[in-house]
């Protein structure tokens, strides 16, 4: 694995960045009760980019919500840097599928938003420097003063990702951030995010439906089962880093894609009563 960030206190102790231990959660009461996560355990280690892949409705977003501190598990524990998650915290940068940027703020102000919230800990020069860095990293130079309504979907997601990075989070939590984009933009965004994260060395948990996207971006992939959900398997991605457009046609990539597509297909045929 590549070098870790210097400010990462967990390295010395080997404490995982994100730790899910036998996490259980369900919704509803009585006969309407639906068990969703049925004992899910896995870690995201320091500097790792881990994708979570699983059938629709298996609880991927729920898992991310638990790590973000927006909800609480019924049983089991969720820890970040060795401490239980008790609520939302600025050490987690969250990016959602829907464009969660403020329509009334410019690109620059959206990216700086989290930093200005913590103004007591950042002076203006630091905020400007961080904002500039992520404007460049996400290829938004020239659009600093644009309002979101004038941007394409891909560019809006770049603003959302830049904003998440800018607060210097301990972990990045992303829930299908590219799902609404067309195929070509999506590949471009995967490449941009991969390059950005190689440079930044953040620990990340990335939710996706896309086998291709999971392989391209990740060092490991956690595959979840159908509901009630457990970990089906955890796979190392043997495709060398850095990944480029050519990586997608490498034998390792193709072999892992074949395997994962088969796994996903078998799960979806289970969900839909055996139809292919
Ligand atoms: N707050 C809630 N109240 C009731 N049910 C919920 C709630 N949150 C999630 N669920 C249910 O839990 C299950 C898992 O939802 P979740 O959104 O986590 O799935 P997912 O794997 O992200 O699905 P998708 O791939 O479609 O995004 C679904 O059946 C959903 O209806
Ligand atoms: Mg979801």
Order of helices and strands: EEEHEEEHHHEHEHEEH
Coarse structural class: alpha/beta
Rg: 19 Å
The distinct ligands, each listed once, are:
adenosine-5'-triphosphate, magnesium ion
Strand content: 15-25%
The main β sheet shows up as: 6 strands, mixed
Overall geometry: globular
Number of strands: 10
In which order are the strands of the major sheet placed? 6-7-8-3-9-10
Report the end-to-end length measured between terminal Cα atoms: 38 Å
Low-confidence stretches: 1-12
The percent range for helix content is 25-40%
- H/I helix tally: 7
Mean pLDDT: 90
Protein architecture, described:
The strands form two sheets. The protein has a six-stranded mixed β-sheet with strand order 6-7-8-3-9-10, with helices on both faces. A four-stranded antiparallel β-sheet has the order 2-1-4-5, with helices on one face. Mean pLDDT is 90; it is low at 1-12. The protein is globular and about 50 Å long. The chain has a domain at 103-168. Helix content is 34%, strand content 22%. The protein is of the alpha/beta class. It has helices spanning 60-68, 107-117, 124-137, 153-166, 183-200, 211-217, 251-271, and strands spanning 18-27, 34-44, 49-53, 75-80, 83-84, 92-95, 171-175, 203-208, 220-224, 231-236.
């Amino acid at each position: 694995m590549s070098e870790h960030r210097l400010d990462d206190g967990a390295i010395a102790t080997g404490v995982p960045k994100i730790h899910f231990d036998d996490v259980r959660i369900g919704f509803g009461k009585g006969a309407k009760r639906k068990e969703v996560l049925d004992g899910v355990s896995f870690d995201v280690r320091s500097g790792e980019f881990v994708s979570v892949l699983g059938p629709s409705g298996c609880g991927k977003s729920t898992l991310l919500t638990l790590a973000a501190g927006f909800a609480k598990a019924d049983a089991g524990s969720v820890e970040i840097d060795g401490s239980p998650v008790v609520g939302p915290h600025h050490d987690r940068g969250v990016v959602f599928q829907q464009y969660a940027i403020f329509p009334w703020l410019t690109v620059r102000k959206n990216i700086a938003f989290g930093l200005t919230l913590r103004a007591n800990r950042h002076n203006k020069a630091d905020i400007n420097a961080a904002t500039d860095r992520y404007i460049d990293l996400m290829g938004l130079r020239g659009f600093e003063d644009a309002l979101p309504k004038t941007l394409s979907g891909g560019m809006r997601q770049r603003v959302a990702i830049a904003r998440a990075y800018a607060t210097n989070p301990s972990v990045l939590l992303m829930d299908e951030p590219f799902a609404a984009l067309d195929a070509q933009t999506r590949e471009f965004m995967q490449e941009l995010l991969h390059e950005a994260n190689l440079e930044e060395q953040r620990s990340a948990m990335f939710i996706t439906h896309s086998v291709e996207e999971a392989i391209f971006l990740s060092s490991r992939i956690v595959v979840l089962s159908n509901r009630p959900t457990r970990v089906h398997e955890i796979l190392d991605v043997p495709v060398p880093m850095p990944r480029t457009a050519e990586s997608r046609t490498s034998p390792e990539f193709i072999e892992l894609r074949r395997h994962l597509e088969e796994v996903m297909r078998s799960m979806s045929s289970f969900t839909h009563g055996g139809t292919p």
